[in-house]
Amino acid sequence: MTTSIERVQYSDRVPIRSIILRPDGGSGLAGQQARVGGWVKTGRKADKDAFAFLELNDGSCASNLQIIVEADRGDLGQLVLTGTCLQVDGVLKLPPDGKKQKVELQVQKVIHVGVVDASKYPLPKTRLPLELLRDYVHLRARTNAMGAVARIRDELSYATKRFFHESGFRYVNTPNITTSDCEGAGEMFQVTTLISEAEKLEKNLIKNPPPSEVDVESAKLIIKQRGNDVAQLKSAKASKQEIGAAVAELQKSKENVLKMEERSKLQPGIPQKDGKIDYSQDFFARQAFLTVSGQLQLESYACALSTVYTFGPTFRAEKSHTSRHLAEFWMVEPEMAFAELEHDMDCAEDYVKFMCQWLLDHCMEDMEFFADKIDKSCIDRITMSAKTPFARITYTEAVELLTEAVKNGKKFENHVEWGIDLASEHERYLTEVKFQKPVIVYNYPKEIKAFYMRLNDDSKTVAAMDVLVPKVGIILGTLNLYN
Amino acid sequence: MTTSIERVQYSDRVPIRSIILRPDGGSGLAGQQARVGGWVKTGRKADKDAFAFLELNDGSCASNLQIIVEADRGDLGQLVLTGTCLQVDGVLKLPPDGKKQKVELQVQKVIHVGVVDASKYPLPKTRLPLELLRDYVHLRARTNAMGAVARIRDELSYATKRFFHESGFRYVNTPNITTSDCEGAGEMFQVTTLISEAEKLEKNLIKNPPPSEVDVESAKLIIKQRGNDVAQLKSAKASKQEIGAAVAELQKSKENVLKMEERSKLQPGIPQKDGKIDYSQDFFARQAFLTVSGQLQLESYACALSTVYTFGPTFRAEKSHTSRHLAEFWMVEPEMAFAELEHDMDCAEDYVKFMCQWLLDHCMEDMEFFADKIDKSCIDRITMSAKTPFARITYTEAVELLTEAVKNGKKFENHVEWGIDLASEHERYLTEVKFQKPVIVYNYPKEIKAFYMRLNDDSKTVAAMDVLVPKVGIILGTLNLYN
After folding, report:
1. What are the average pLDDT values for consecutive 10-residue runs of chain B, which has 483 residues?
2. A60 and B338: CB-CB below 8 Å?
3. pTM of the predicted model as reported, rounded to 2 decimal places
4. For residue A77, what are the CA distances in angstroms to A47, A50, A81, A280?
5. Is B346's CB within 8 Å of A138's CB?
6. What is the DSSP string of A348-414?
7. Dist. CA A223–CA A251, nearest whole Å
8. Rounded to an integer, what distance in angstroms lies between the CA atom of residue A377 and that of residue A99?
């Protein structure tokens, strides 16, 4: 009895993942037929060009499937080129030498070849710097690193939906175009049709210039003339038909003047009123921006559905070119009614743990790639975050710990005293040195947090919290509390 | 033995749904303690103000929980007001008369009251027109209709993620800000910081006018003077210190002139170059827009990960005020490599069926509200779409059926012949009269579909398909095919 292979839904092919990512490396599938599709990562001819070995990847996982094509099945010279698109039918078989664990595919029929011009294909077999890949945005998802990023983003996005859905949160589509600023969270992008409308108008005015005053005056004379025509016909007791026709002509000439007057008022450029831009002529009849946060809308939904969240794009027009500043990014924003700061911290900790556990359960192959190539300790840190209870300390305790560290000789660039905004170096000391695990800091001085945070009974601190994580810093800030 | 009640996660309260939406209406929970929170829908005092009945809703479901508060537990006059926010501890009990099936909550302790000013609270107990609710966007999620819409949107959004995840699609975050138009799918919103930067500059120039030519000239004279100072000190063999100080002064005056010259060039208004707007000074150093489709980005990911989709906001600046035109809406876009049109139709049909079945399984209470108040046949149509195989006909067959209908006396406003774009009345005839179920029309004339659709072997039609649904029309168009 053979194990059956999981088919791709809505295709006749088998995802390479379901062959390769098995505990037995697919060896239990030997002897089975499979159709696969993908792109050649590397290829080489062998045995005096009698056949070729191809490493095929279909993006379903990081691993490639080894494909063996004999010379009578296709143009081997073409097939071995990196980037070639290939769909084939074949039989899975164990490698002959028995050294490799993974199963291979012996091609019976080449169904489709998407050829590649090797002189133009920009992705080599070897690794390119990520920065250079920016020049090949349309192809970079085929690289190991970007493929892994794409799969992990997909899994974490799905896990986020799972977590909040299963925790009873309702997802709210907060708007992306907004007329309100949110707590001045950042510089906003303006959304407008004024410029494109002005450009259209400008082209139109060049092609078809507005009537001059003289044009309008002569058109007005025509009205007068036609009016006279009607009067004459009436006094001459002309037929109803004749008078009707003349009245219609008169009407037409009046409409014509109205249109001309309208057009003669047209001004090139962005419409102005009282020396300012006239936003009443913009698409939404007012100034509009891209959202910096869905918080305002979520607050009103939290006061109706109790427990809500949003997960969507957010926009900041900050001219900061650091790895922490993006013009466009996705943000999770939960809002809970009838909850205390403790519930908030529980939710934050559970969410971070859920994400970490999801990575370990569903993305191990890609995480291993990152551990190998980018960040040696990433799997260890994720595992630790998934399993270890987070430390929870008040801001006051955090400042005490930092002050103690300074007394014991630790040097910080930023002075430590109650009331400061914790600097990145302080956060790193707490998570990386003192606790060596994620730390939730809560009850911050009211002066350094937003005005809408709930004031604690001490009248000095507010019910806010931040989750700090080793090597990253703050990954999650306060959810808001309503009653 | 009592049944336990599902608690809200990250709160001490119980969602009203878990009390009321049970087959026994919660009667099996009688005798149990529960903390609930929510907003009063209606309230009335009874038995000479000895107690009050409140209908409490927390948005977890459409149904309210009846709350009984005795006069010694709170200010009944306040509590009965529609919109009052309330968190209470109590005991669930069966209604005394045994007529109602649903359980009630006898309040033991009022934990929190968010008072309402009845003279200002805009939502009455009775139903308001949806159009009027637009004026109370911040409160309308508390109404039955908008609450139901919010819960259904949440469920369908989650079901979409589930469907594509479980079908092996990878979710791709396609960008919302883009510099490319997508097949001219619609009018685009421009994203810019040029206007706000120009406004900032204008304010700055008023507050702090740029230097005049005379200012710059006199600043240049100072350079000359300071240069002379240095020369004099040098020839007088002054101390190194003295010369150094003079050189520093000279340097400062040079920098000052540079800054002044820079400022004197500042022009109010949007920056221009060669008579056009100078987009090199915009945030992205080029003209940028909000996306009308993630298709271009998805295509490149489909050619790396094989099977991908996006689900995010899309923007169209069309000045059409119909129920079919939105400036901002969410769209699902799947792209599949190595798939044929048949797979595409299978996927589309399965997706629509999955959504419909999800509604029936998870949203019945809210669907019943819509069937009762808005659209009598909505549940029947959803059920039919979930259970019945869709009809599948080619465009050519569709035109034949329409032509036959015309022969049999059916009148259409739009002429029917091969090559036309099917009008809404044609689609409705096919789904509502001819088949009385969803219909997939495929293989359209190449002239009426986008250039990138795959040309069929007949060289006349392309591998495109649309899903038509009774009462709605097209709800889903072609996914693209790549090889």
Report:
1. 74 93 89 96 95 96 96 95 96 80 92 94 86 91 95 97 96 92 70 89 86 88 91 90 91 91 84 88 93 92 97 88 81 94 95 97 96 94 96 97 96 96 94 96 94 92 94 72 38
2. no
3. 0.90
4. 14, 11, 7, 64
5. no
6. HHHHHHHHHHHHHHH-HHHHHHHHHHT-TTHHHHHHHHHHSPPEEEEHHHHHHHHHHHHHTT---SS
7. 8
8. 30
Counting one residue from A and one from B, how many pairs have CB atoms under 8 Å apart?
235
Listing DSSP states for A271-321 in one string gives: -EETTEE-GGGSTTSS-EEE-S-SHHHHHHHHHHHSEEEEEEEEE------
Tokens of A189: 């992008």
Specify the residue for token string 């831009």.
Answer: A277
Phi, psi of B371 (to 5 degrees): -65, -35
Q: What is the DSSP string of A120-160?
A: T----SSPPPHHHHGGGTTTGGGSHHHHHHHHHHHHHHHHH
Q: Residue B15 and residue B12: Cα distance in Å, rounded? A: 10
Looking at CA atoms only, how far is residue A246 from chain B in angstroms? 34
d(CA B106, CA B104): 7
Residue type, B413: E
Gap from B170 CA to chain A (nearest CA, Å): 6
Contact criterion met (CB below 8 Å) for A302 and B57: no
Write the DSSP assignment of A210-266 as a string of letters. Answer: PPPHHHHHHHHHHHHHHHHHHHHHHHTT--HHHHHHHHHHHHHHHHHHHHHHHHHT-
Q: Are B110 and B88 in contact (CB under 8 A)?
A: yes
Place of tokens 């595919």: A105
Cβ distance B8 to A168 less than 8 Å, yes or no, reads yes
DSSP, collapsed to helix, strand or coil, labels residue B331 as strand
Q: Please give the Cα distance from B87 to B85 (Å, whole number).
A: 7
Please report the pLDDT score of residue B14 as a whole number. 94
pLDDT in tens, A271-315: 888 888 899 999 999 999 999 889 989 999 999 999 999 999 999
Are B483 and A112 in contact (CB < 8 Å)?
yes
- Quote the CA–CA distance of A189 and A328 in Å, as a whole number: 10
Chain A residues in contact with B283 by the CB 8 A cut-off are 189, 317, 319, 327
Residue among A39, A129, A113 at smallest CA distance from A76: A113
From the list B38, B157, B270, which residue is nearest A171 (CB)?
Answer: B157
Q: Which residue has the higher pLDDT, B370 or A476?
A: B370
What string of H, E and C letters represents the secondary structure of B166-200? HCCCEECCCCCEECCCCCCCCCCCEEECHHHHHHH
pLDDT at position B185, please? 52
CA nearest to B258, candidates B206, B224, B220: B220
**Distance between CA atoms of residues B166 and A276, nearest Å:** 53
pLDDT of residue A332: 95
A54 within 8 A of A67, measured Cβ to Cβ? yes
Q: How far apart, in Å, are the Cα atoms of A148 and each of A69, A366, B10, B283?
A: 28, 5, 33, 30
Whole-angstrom distance, CA of residue A300 vs CA of residue A302: 5
Beta partners for residue A46, in sequence order? A51
Residue of B nearest to A171 (CA): B154
* Tens-place pLDDT, residues A138-187: 999 999 999 999 999 999 999 999 999 999 999 999 999 998 765 555 68
Task: Extract the tokens encoding A347.
Answer: 């939710």
DSSP A169: P
Look at residues B374, B434, B372 and name the one whose alpha carbon lies nearest to residue B403: B434
pLDDT per residue as tens digits for the range A35-58: 999 999 999 999 999 999 999 999
Task: Please give the C-alpha separations between residue B83 and each of A304, A383, B52, B76, B314, in angstroms, as whole numbers.
Answer: 10, 46, 15, 14, 35
Residue A14 main-chain phi, psi, to 5 deg: -105, 130
Coil, helix or strand at residue A329 = strand
* Cα B483 off chain centre by: 33
- Spatial separation of the C-alpha atoms in residues A78 and B229, rounded to whole Å: 76
